[in-house]
Amino acid sequence: xxxxxxxxxxxxxxxxxxxxxxxxxxxxxxxxxxxxxxxxxxxxxxxxxxxxxxxxxxxxxxxxxxxxxxxxxxxxxxxxxxxxxxxxxxxxxxxxxxxxxxxxxxxxxxxxxxxxxxxxxxxxxxxxxxxxxxxxxxxxxxxxxxxxxxxxxxxxxxxxxxxxxxxxxxxxxxxxxxxxxxxxxxxxxxxxxxxxxxxxxxxxxxxxxxxxxxxxxxxxxxxxxxxxxxxxxxxxxxxxxxxxxxxxxxxxxxxxxxxxxxxxxxxxxxxxxxxxxxxxxxxxxxxxxxxxxxxxxxxxxxxxxxxxxxxxxxxxxxxxxxxxxxxxxxxxxxxxxxxxxxxxxxxxxxxxxxxxxxxxxxxxx
Length: 365
Ligand SMILES: Cc1ncc(C[n+]2csc(CCOP(=O)(O)OP(=O)(O)O)c2C)c(N)n1
Ligand SMILES: [Mg+2]
Hints:
Mean pLDDT is about 90; it is low at about 1-30. The protein has a single domain (about 40-225, about 270-345), classed as Thiamin diphosphate (ThDP)-binding fold, Pyr/PP domains (Rossmann fold, 3-Layer(aba) Sandwich), CATH 3.40.50.970. The strands form two sheets. It has a five-stranded parallel β-sheet with strand order 1-2-3-7-6. Strands 4-5 form a two-stranded antiparallel sheet. It is of the alpha/beta class. α2 (about 45-70) packs across α3, α3 packs across α10 (about 250-265) and α5 (about 115-125) crosses α13. The chain is globular and about 50 Å long. It has 13 helices and seven strands. β2 (about 180-185), α7 (about 190-200) and β3 (about 205-210) form a beta-alpha-beta unit. It binds thiamine diphosphate and magnesium ion. Magnesium ion binds near residues 183, 185, 213 and 215.
């Protein structure tokens, strides 16, 4: 009875509106009431989402530069192209107390959860002021106070942990929800099936979000998954399962909010297959295209850049004019520059830090 599937909707309805661009030089007064296309959201809210996406983008472009200069070492996976998922789901749809747990492509999600860019950048540079005191690096951003529970490098390893978080919320009779992000490749791992089975069985307030960017490193979804419509995997575990356009921040917000409201009200779990695309290589050591996907494919997908599309919607609806974007660009570049300055001027972790926070002390020890 709880199971239903929403079939893939064509993106054409959304993209077609882009053709009717407004004259962006005119100074438009912000609408008193937000048009239905903007879901009745406040102007400040909409702009905070634009800023969040732009901050993630500029932050990661800077991280890529620093990586090239040898200032960041080890693994580093960029989220460029996928920003609307993080912003719509975390910044938009959930409350500050709700939990987020994710994989290694985690910088933007940490930003959307309100973690200071300075602390994230310091972590990338391995500094003592970083989110895990320089010991975790890019793949292990963590902030207990913000209920951001990682940053996990083992594909699928965190999916059953989300079940544990959901169990704790229900057991304690609390009202938070847990968003668990994963890639399309993670849905082929055993822990995905074990985690979803328990969440479906025990009706836990977990929303599983598959960020379907169509590739697991260099392996396409057609070569790795027995079915391409990944939302169908949620149906097997008695969860509401839907497909979402991950290039449209408003749609991501709407669908994740609906799932979070259900989870809060009745502990009902959901699975959302959010269709997205990464514009960069899998990690810093991989090319942007390569033998597994063509340059033409990447260029074509860049036409639906979520930040550009949202900026066009904001202009078309008269929420802002071009000047806003120029001002936002300056403001955000400054935040990124300050985060780099902070990270570069921060100390390395002292040697004895190596032995700290490895095991938790048992109570009373
Ligand atoms: C258990 C495990 N197997 C293999 C790897 C190596 N690995 C790292 S990322 C990755 C691809 C995962 O793809 P996907 O889940 O689609 O996430 P995306 O990178 O696209 O965000 C693999 C195989 C790993 N980290 N953990
Ligand atoms: Mg993937």
